[in-house]
Amino acid sequence: MDIREIQNLIKFVAKSGATEVKLEMDDFKITIKTTQEGTDTTYVQQVPVTTALPQAAAPMPVAPTTAAPVAPEVKSSEDNSKYITVKSPIIGTFYRKPAPDKPVFVEVGSTISKGDVVCVIEAMKLFNEIESEVSGKIVKVLVDDASPVEFDQPLFLVDPS
Prior knowledge:
Layout: H1 3-16, E1 20-24, E2 28-34, E3 39-45, E4 84-87, E5 92-95, E6 111-112, E7 117-123, E8 126-131, E9 136-141, E10 147-149, E11 154-159
Antiparallel strand pairs: 1-2, 2-3, 4-11, 5-7, 5-10, 6-9, 7-8, 9-11
């Protein structure tokens, strides 16, 4: 297996969403572990056992692994404790608009009521409208459009006053 095939395998695994793939051949073993931020790759070469004279095995080229970047904790100078956080009820892709040619559901400064649609989250090819559970004014949008979101991830800050 040459380096190009290994790189293609890494790209395929990263796109597939698998978290770990192990491939064992006669003379080497590859383990690919993916994280949400990127792909960590570990290569392990095993030299086949021979009964002939010992030979030095050429090391397999190893692509540099990248450590998962740690997001620095951002501390705002404002006191966000007075705001209510609208969180994602599902895992999926966050969209601020109902369609690419339509306006966004809410902007910073928009006044919302309980039950108003604030965004949609696409999960398994279904677009789920996310309704606000509080009334108030949108203070901050915490997620970029077309970004993946996790369950219970903060989406918006709302000032209930």
